[in-house]
């Protein structure tokens, strides 16, 4: 019996509700699966036509990639069946994808980057393209293999990043995390053996330095609320910043995506863009004046509240990403001048709204409740946002000991 190939969407979703796409290889009623590195939500998959629906913003790119992957697999299957008609389905999978073992690090990295771009993960694509560039400049050859990336290579590379590119420790660790990600992926795909893995205990460890997230105090936020000598652009920046702060530190990308239809029955309903989790929050009284400020520009219930996303082609994920990034950058420029007028010497950015809420919440909200508001999977992440409260507890304890 001849073997067959078919693209399918596996049913088990990840935490963000996306399911993996895989090529199913079947022979003699036995099947095995080869994941192609792409995930989509079930509602975007046409199971009859075995393709991504047009409703997905990147359907054309994804379907093109799927066709290419099937074409590659079929080519390998035909060549194998010509040599060995009795090959088992598991042997076929192993042999079809054996050619990948010859891939260099950069060839494998390019496949990874292509998948990220096609999946609409433009922020990751931009960052990891830069990381790949650092590695290429360091080793000066595209023939680098995973076996070449040993402990000595990584130690020399860390020194290179600090000296040649003046990268801070956090940035250096991010590049190493990227290499580790590709290495683990290459192990799973049989390109390199685990015994060559250069990370972990007794080898190269990835440890991020503790970073202090300095949020604003209640008094500083009150000062910003009361400022009167602001330009229209600064008023808009303040509005969006306060909107994010009032809604428990909502991310600016989610604030930009808020539509008037998301505001109903005195609550805000939205899906977090970072992890696709649903969230509903009561609208604080302080938010209503901000909403009133933009009502004159409201066209219909489906319109965006803030102007940043208006007119963008929502089917083009790259344009959406650029609009969000540029909008955030412009607001941060205005926030810098607002901080100067408020005589605040801290760095004021959109993301600081999230840290400010977390820091102030330390005096009033249990970490578990803040974790629920933030939709953090790990409580440790939430506690980082309450750093000032934790410091306050330590300071109070110190005073009790030495004030005698």
Describe the structure.
The structure is a single chain. The protein has helices at 59-83, 89-96, 105-118, 122-139, 151-164, 169-188, 218-226, 232-246, 252-256, 288-294, 317-341, 351-361, 367-374, 379-385, 387-402, and strands at 4-9, 18-27, 30-41, 45-46, 51-52, 263-264, 267-271, 278-282. Mean pLDDT is 83; it is low at 385-391 and 397-404. 50% of the residues lie in helices and 11% in strands. It has 15 helices and eight strands. It folds into three domains: 1-96, no CATH class; 101-209, DNA polymerase, domain 1 (Orthogonal Bundle); 218-399, Intergrase catalytic core (hpI Integrase, Chain A). It starts with a strand and ends with a helix. α12 crosses α14 (379-385) and α13 (367-374) packs across α14 (379-385). The chain is mainly alpha-helical.
- Average pLDDT, all residues: 83
Number of strands: 8
Q: Please report the first level of CATH classification, the CATH class of the largest domain.
A: Mainly Alpha
Tell me what the CATH architecture of the largest domain is: Orthogonal Bundle
Family: Belongs to the 'phage' integrase family.
Organism: Allomuricauda ruestringensis (strain DSM 13258 / CIP 107369 / LMG 19739 / B1) (Muricauda ruestringensis)
Pfam family, one: Phage_int_SAM_5
Domain Tyr recombinase: 211-403
């Amino acid at each position: 019996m001849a073997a067959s190939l078919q693209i399918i969407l596996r049913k088990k979703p990840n935490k963000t509700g996306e399911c993996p796409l895989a090529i199913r290889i079947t022979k003699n009623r036995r099947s095995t699966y080869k994941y192609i590195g792409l995930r989509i939500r079930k509602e975007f998959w046409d199971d009859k036509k075995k393709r991504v629906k047009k409703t997905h913003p990147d359907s054309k790119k994804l379907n093109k990639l799927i066709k290419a992957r099937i074409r590659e697999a079929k080519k390998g299957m035909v060549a194998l069946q010509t040599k060995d008609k009795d090959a088992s389905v598991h042997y076929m999978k192993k042999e079809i994808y054996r050619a990948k073992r010859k891939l260099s690090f950069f060839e494998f990295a390019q496949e990874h980057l292509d998948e990220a771009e096609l999946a609409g993960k433009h922020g990751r694509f931009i960052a990891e393209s830069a990381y790949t560039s650092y590695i290429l400049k360091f080793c000066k050859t595209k023939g680098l293999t995973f076996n070449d990336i040993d402990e000595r290579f990584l130690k020399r590379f860390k020194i290179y990043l600090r000296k040649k590119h003046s990268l801070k420790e956090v940035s250096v660790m991010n590049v190493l995390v990227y290499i580790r990600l590709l290495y683990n992926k290459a192990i799973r795909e049989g390109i390199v053996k685990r015994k060559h893995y250069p990370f972990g205990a007794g080898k190269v460890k990835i440890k991020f330095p503790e970073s202090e997230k300095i949020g604003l105090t209640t008094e500083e936020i009150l000062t910003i609320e009361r400022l009167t000598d602001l330009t229209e652009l600064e008023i808009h920046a303040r509005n969006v910043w306060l909107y994010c702060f009032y809604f428990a530190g909502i991310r600016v990308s989610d604030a930009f995506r808020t539509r008037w239809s998301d505001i109903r029955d005195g609550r805000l309903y939205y899906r977090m863009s970072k992890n696709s989790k649903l969230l509903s929050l009561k609208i604080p009284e302080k938010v209503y004046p901000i909403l009133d400020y933009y009502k004159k520009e409201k066209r219909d219930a489906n319109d965006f509240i803030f102007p940043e996303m208006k007119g963008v082609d929502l089917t083009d994920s790259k344009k959406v990403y650029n609009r969000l990034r540029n909008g955030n950058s412009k607001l941060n420029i205005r926030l810098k001048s607002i901080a100067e007028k408020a005589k605040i010497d801290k760095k004021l950015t959109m993301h600081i709204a999230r840290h400010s809420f977390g820091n102030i919440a330390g005096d009033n909200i249990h970490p578990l409740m803040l974790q629920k508001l933030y939709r953090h999977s790990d409580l440790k992440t939430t506690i980082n946002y309450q750093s000032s409260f934790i410091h306050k507890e330590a300071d109070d304890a110190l005073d009790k000991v030495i004030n005698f």
